[in-house]
Design brief:
Shape: globular
Bound molecules: adenosine-5'-diphosphate, magnesium ion
Strand order of the largest sheet: 6-7-8-3-9-10
Helix content: 25-40%
Order of helices and strands: EEEHEEHEHHHHEHEHEEHH
CATH class of the largest domain: Alpha Beta
CATH architecture of the largest domain: 3-Layer(aba) Sandwich
Number of strands: 10
Largest sheet: 6 strands, mixed
Length: 283
């Protein structure tokens, strides 16, 4: 965990009593049950739990996303004081492209293949009202901020000319382009090889500190969680079974399910990060 500025003030993300369900065979299936989650600036809160426990459901609600067929049965999601599920569509779009950003699993692979990288990043900067020259400069600055080498040259390449790690860095650049206050990371390194993961995680950790973000990190990888998160929520079948500061959770897991999760990890190294990092970024 890196040194962080003191956290404080009102939470940027505040989820209370979140209950999400969907109809199946004539009955309600609850995928998130009375979940509470608060994240302040300069803070990273991880959501862990086995596949299907409701992690992505909870994380998605920070951007006002609900899977098709799901509904908000109860609770509230506030981002920067705005009630996400009460926002009119236009303000919700503004929230998504502004206050909150998301990096999903394999986000780098979702870049538009036929469009140069620089142009895609420029689109993410649209809201800033920059003229052509300032926009070009801002694109290079962003690619530099995500530690991509030769950003001016790289901006002219197409996604397939980049490594997987570099593509993910571009996706991260696009996510932070609008200077968000909150960042949702849903398995941001799953699918990348382990060496590349280390570089991307260090980048995300650095960026969250540099930008003072309130970060929600979904991961099934407890090594990742140990290295990045200040606090951890453990979910099981839609319920939060334990919430604790990261150190306490790993040192003294209290819920049997948390113990089972921890026991399934071979070894948590100090910091949890792979220290080599040749993913084509400068790490
Ligand atoms: P996680 O990210 O922890 O793997 P998810 O939040 O993606 O879990 O999903 C929780 C569970 O709810 C999964 O089993 C998923 O298939 C199910 N689910 C969520 N929404 C719906 C829906 N609208 N219809 C059917 N199944 C759903
Ligand atoms: Mg998920």
């Amino acid at each position: 965990m890196t040194e962080r500025e003191a956290t404080g003030g009102a939470p940027v993300v505040e989820i209370t009593g979140l209950t999400v369900s969907y109809r199946s065979a004539g009955r309600d299936v609850v995928v998130a049950n009375e979940v509470d989650l608060a994240v302040r600036a300069n803070e990273t809160v991880a959501v862990v739990g086995e596949s299907g426990s409701g992690k992505s459901t909870v994380a998605g609600t920070v951007l006002g996303h609900l899977r098709h067929g799901s509904r908000l049965a109860a609770g509230r999601v506030l981002v920067d004081g705005q009630d996400v599920f009460a926002l009119p569509p236009r303000q919700l779009r503004a929230l998504r492209g502004g206050t909150v950003a998301m990096v999903a699993q394999n986000a780098g692979q979702a870049l538009t293949p036929s469009m140069r990288v620089g142009r895609q990043v420029a689109e993410a900067l649209r809201g800033r009202g920059l003229d052509r020259r300032a926009l070009d400069a801002a694109v290079v600055e962003l690619l530099d901020q995500v530690r991509l080498p030769n950003p001016a040259e790289l901006a002219r390449r197409y996604p397939h000319q980049l490594s997987g790690g570099q593509q993910q860095r571009v996706a991260i650049a696009m996510a932070v382009a609008a200077r968000p206050r909150a960042l949702v990371l849903d398995e941001p390194t799953t699918g990348l090889d382990v060496v590349t993961q280390g570089g991307i995680l260090r980048l995300l950790d650095t960026l969250s500190s540099e930008l003072g973000l309130a970060t929600v990190l979904v991961s099934h990888d407890l090594g990742v969680v140990a290295s990045m998160a200040d606090r951890v929520l453990v979910m099981r079948r839609g319920e939060v079974v334990e919430e604790a500061d990261t150190e306490r959770l790993f040192a003294d897991p209290r819920h049997p399910y948390t113990r089972t999760l921890l026991a399934s990890v071979p070894r948590i190294t100090d910091g949890g990060l792979v220290e080599v990092g040749e993913d084509g970024g400068r790490t």
